[in-house]
Amino acid sequence: MKNWWKILSVVLLMYVMIMGFLGEVPRQPILNESVRNLYFHVTMWFSMMALLITSVWYSVKYLRNPLEEYDDKAVEFAYTGILFGVLGLITGSLWARFTWGAWWTNDPKLNSVAIGMLIYFAYIILRGSFQDELQRGRISAVYNIFAFVIFMVLIWILPRMTDSLHPGNGGNPGFKPMDTKGTMQIVFRPAIVGWILLGVWITTLRLRLKKLERIQKEL
Amino acid sequence: MEIFEHDIYHSKYYLVFEFGVYLCCNFVARKNFGLILFVFDRSLEKQTLSEKLMFQEVKALINKEVKLEWRQKYALNGMLLYIVSTVYICYLSFKLKTNELKPITWNTLFWIILLFTAVNSIAKSFQQEKHGRLLYYYTLASPEGIILSKIIYNSLLMLVLSLAGFGFYAIVMGNPVGDISLYLGSIILGAVGFSSTLTMIAGIASKADNSSTLMAILSFPVIIPILLLLLKVSKNALDGLDRGSSADEVFTLLAIDLIVVVLSVILFPYLWKS
């Protein structure tokens, strides 16, 4: 059973879907039922981080040993990471509309992630501007590592230096005090694993597609 | 669950510094590259030959850059004229009512002018030189020496440009700065931060075909963390706030500068090979 993790991903996400919409959640003013978005919004960022870290890992590997395989993996993990980042922005925007009253607020975390997405779009454009595969691989790997470090500064350090509307920042309470019975944690933690596995699955599918296209081109 | 906790980040600067120091140590250990140690501790007598050579190499390369710039003065004069005319355009665009300008607008405008000057002047640091000559350096100097010398030289260039720009800006747009030495300090930090980040990006962009567009789209998002911190520090200096209130930002800026320089030195050899 080498595909056990795909089955695990499906099972976990089914569980998250059912428990996420039907399970018990703490009753809070303003948040109300929208607190369920925790399973879909916060987990996107976990998955994005996991995928982008994997991407940087393969970029480092590529610089040490320039195999085409590593370059493919680095770029495909980055693509899926971007997808999860955009989904995180969309779910966050939806949540902000019903709790903070606007689709987009001038919150440092929102701005940081938006800039982070710009950095990764620039990465895609950079890749597009090379013809030679070896050069493209090496230079985009260098940029990927460089951009990742700046991205970390953006999302981990800068938002901590100002107030934010997000829970756990600027005097706002986190989720822990209200989830006294732990009913959300038993859905939240499997959700993180499930979404990350789904991200890896999407990436492996794209990698296979890329390999097939390459074979087709050679024929 | 840690992510629910409120205060795991009370040591936020520690995180940045630890990462910087980690990268440094790793690098020193891996490559026996003692330049960083050398800068911190000049009394260190046990320098190996390679460290001494490295230092000489960087010095010689900076010398070369300065001489090159001095021989073709039009480039430097061009950049000076660029910043002066931009400032003048801003002055005229506000219809000469600069005394009605709010401090925050004054500050932001100045940094945006500096940002564009930096992108334009540093973009040429790799494009200026011909392919043959780059190949010649490749045989002579180590990539670490080249990137360090370029970063240091670009920092000096940006320092000259931004201080000249600040002087002219203060003359035509008025000078509402409360704490002038802190403001100049933020300009120095900005010059080093901009040039260390942009030198690496210029190296990346120069390898591609449409390098001027690429330079802009690669550098703007990457430069934003530095720019935001600079805006905050300089706004504090502008309002003449207590120095302690900008200590956090200055500290973080120094850490980011350090991280970017170390990263550039580590990554540049891979860029240089291609």
UniProtKB/TrEMBL annotation, chain A:
Transmembrane annotation, as ranges: 7-26, 38-58, 78-98, 110-129, 141-158, 186-207
Major subcellular site: membrane
Record's bilayer topology term: Multi-pass membrane protein
Pfam families cross-referenced by the UniProt entry: Cytochrom_C_asm
Keyword vocabulary terms for this entry: Cytochrome c-type biogenesis, Membrane, Transmembrane, Transmembrane helix
Superkingdom of the source species: Bacteria
GO annotation terms (biological process): cytochrome complex assembly
Record-annotated Cytochrome c assembly protein domain positions: 10-154
GO molecular-function term, one example from the UniProt record: heme transmembrane transporter activity
Keyword check for Protein transport: no
Key word Transmembrane helix present: yes
Purpose of the protein: Required for the export of heme to the periplasm for the biogenesis of c-type cytochromes.
Protein name in the entry: Heme exporter protein C
Lineage: Bacteria, Pseudomonadati, Bacteroidota, Cytophagia, Cytophagales
From TrEMBL, chain B:
Major site of localization recorded for this protein: membrane
Name of the protein described by the UniProt record: Heme exporter protein B
Native source organism of the sequence: Pseudarcicella hirudinis
Protein family according to the UniProt entry: Belongs to the CcmB/CycW/HelB family.
UniProt topology in membrane: Multi-pass membrane protein
Pfam families: CcmB
UniProt GO molecular function: heme transmembrane transporter activity
Residues that span the membrane, as ranges: 74-94, 106-123, 151-174, 180-201, 213-231, 251-272
Compartment(s) of residence: Membrane
GO cellular component: membrane
GO BP annotations listed: cytochrome complex assembly
Keywords, sorted A to Z: Membrane, Transmembrane, Transmembrane helix
InterPro entries hit by this protein: Cyt_c_biogenesis_CcmB
